[in-house]
Amino acid sequence: MLQVNVELKERRYPIRIAAGLLNEPNSYAPLKAGDKVMIVSTPTIAPHYLATVEKALTKLGCSVDSVLIPDGEKYKNLESLNLIFTALLEKNHNRDTTLIALGGGVIGDIAGYAAASYQRGIRFIQIPTTLLAQVDSSVGGKTAVNHPLGKNMVGAFYQPASVIIDTNTLHTLAKREVSAGLAEVIKYGAIFDEQFFTWLEENIDKLVALDQQALEYCIQRCCQLKADVVARDETEKGDRALLNLGHTFGHAIEAHMGYGNWLHGEGVAVGMLEAAELSRMLGNISESDVSRLEKLIARAVLPTTSPDGMQSQEYLPYMWRDKKVLAGKLRLILLKALGQAYVTAEATEDQVLAAIEKFTQK
């Protein structure tokens, strides 16, 4: 088993990574005999893993309930959040309950926010079952639901007690979802680690094919990079914002298309290319660097152009609502070099539009 620790000012929590962890009662620490648990999952994930988790927790001596909420980004909303609260109240769960998020990034986000809010905060554990959630959204304590006018607009920073990454869950994942996760993987190399970016160029085909050894190294490296930045900047006052490379553009695509029609990772993939092109226009990186990123994204079986019919001007209303806008300035994550990102408000709206246009379907 591999383990990465997220070191915070007041405490630490472990990320455990291995095949078969869901079957092992000891994987669920700090849970112990006598604890009450509510598992939050979906009708898609539950048939694969809910019974396995319930069996392990029952063997540990826990009292276990579960609630299923609808699948998909379009259901990451206040209505689904209320379904969790209702289940907790109907089953008489109180402050000593632990909430478990069993699923992808949507489940992690909404269950985490439910844990942050229910009776002013209860413990929760992340069990991410998608690659995107394993390498990114399950680590670091960002929890939220969407609003029709913007993604992740209602939420909180609330850290899990632990993260359990069973790589076997990736074998029931649709290929499109694997590729969506690889977008976030590529992001880590682009913003923090050029050596890892090069490793990805050499190993992306293995990751697409779910090679176990490549996956474990990849997930561990991504989690370590995420853990390091969260330890430095838990509530995104500084360089944690760098993790949002491509996200301002990508969130615009997701919102414009209707949540769930384009996967988060697909929007981020195109958004990274638009951010890279803007970085080139500002004199930071070369055409060759942009090309390397585009080729790697394409090999990960991800889109490299905006959705058919979406025009560059249609990005702007969503981008101006982004949480990184400050004092009327559009703050973007751009690249100084492959492996080095920075935050800037120097780009003009015309430059932003030109960068988007480069990767817009003609």
TrEMBL record:
Catalyzed reactions: 7-phospho-2-dehydro-3-deoxy-D-arabino-heptonate = 3-dehydroquinate + phosphate
InterPro entries, alphabetized: Dehydroquinate_synthase, DHQ_synth_AroB, DHQ_synth_fam, DHQS/DOIS_N, DHQS_C
Enzyme class (EC, first level): lyase
SUPFAM superfamilies: Dehydroquinate synthase-like
GO biological process: amino acid biosynthetic process; aromatic amino acid family biosynthetic process; chorismate biosynthetic process
Cofactor(s) essential for the protein: Co(2+); Zn(2+); NAD(+)
GO cellular component, one term: cytoplasm
EC number(s) per entry: 4.2.3.4
Domain spans labelled 3-dehydroquinate synthase C-terminal: 181-325
Residues in 3-dehydroquinate synthase N-terminal domain copies: 67-179
Residues holding Zn(2+): 184, 247, 264
Pathway: Metabolic intermediate biosynthesis; chorismate biosynthesis; chorismate from D-erythrose 4-phosphate and phosphoenolpyruvate: step 2/7
Cited HAMAP family: DHQ_synthase
Family stated for the protein in its record: Belongs to the sugar phosphate cyclases superfamily. Dehydroquinate synthase family.
Record function comment: Catalyzes the conversion of 3-deoxy-D-arabino-heptulosonate 7-phosphate (DAHP) to dehydroquinate (DHQ).
Name of the molecule in the record: 3-dehydroquinate synthase
High-level lineage: Bacteria, Pseudomonadati, Pseudomonadota, Gammaproteobacteria, Pasteurellales
Gene: aroB
